[in-house]
Amino acid sequence: MKRFFGRKNGDKIIIEGNEFNHLKKVLRMNEGDKIIANVDDEYDYFCTISKMGKNDCLANIDEIKLCQALPKRNITLFQMLPKKEYFDNIIAKSIELGINKIVPFTSQYTMIKDIRPERVQTQVMTACKQCERSKLVEVTKPIKLKDLPQMLEEYDLAIFAYENEESPFKPEILTGKQNIAIIVGNEAGFNEEEAMLLKQCSHSISLGKRILRCDTAVITTLALVSVLSNN
Questions:
Q1: How far is CA 109 from its chain centroid?
Q2: Which of 51, 67, 55 lies closest to 3, judged by CA?
Q3: Do residues 206 and 166 make contact, with C-beta atoms less than 8 angstroms apart?
Q4: What is the pTM assigned to this prediction?
């Protein structure tokens, strides 16, 4: 059953904008067809399309179920802004692996200083539908690296994947931790001063002797945390 994001209006769901265009013009769906609708909450709405309009459609809610794909832990990815193609992949894969929030940040080696909200929102929605998550993941405006230490105080555990670290990941650091921050650099990495700042406010780990591309480092770290924390 195809999945679409819309908005709830009483006992109906309204599908509009790009989601409606995809439903009508690409998938050629019609009145009477069954869909799953999401409205950025914790539920899946099983619906039947009841009325097709020119710019939107109405769907009657037949059944409501709690979304089974939502994460059990609150995990935030702090990602140093990489090249656009890397960031697209990072958004998609981190959402599939159970991230709740993505906070991009800039540093000395950051060439890209900003993101396009419309492009990011499209990537987020596509990824959430792919892995059947009913709530959209927040991607904030970029912050500066110097602001990270204060923000990390809000978390039970902060994990810093650092290429020059020798200490391996130890699963026991996740015990009892509900709010977890993951810090990953971009393709250029961190200078020594930046790395020292982050090591002082986080648990620095090694991902092995091979230098990983930034999107691979995100996938590796999140896979470890998600599986070992039962997320």
A1: 23
A2: 67
A3: yes
A4: 0.91
Phi, psi angle pair for 62, to nearest 5°: -95, -35
Whole-angstrom Cα distance, residue 202 to residue 209?
21
Say if CB 115 and CB 149 are below 8 A apart.
no
- Name the amino acid, one letter, at 124: V
Which two three-digit tokens encode residue 188?
């250029």
* pLDDT string in tens for the chain (231-residue length): 999 999 999 999 999 999 999 999 999 999 999 999 999 999 999 999 999 999 999 999 999 999 999 999 999 999 999 988 899 999 999 999 999 999 999 998 888 878 888 999 999 999 999 999 999 999 999 999 999 999 999 999 999 998 888 888 888 999 999 999 999 999 888 899 999 999 999 999 988 888 888 999 999 999 999 888 887
Quick one: which H or E segment has residue 178? none
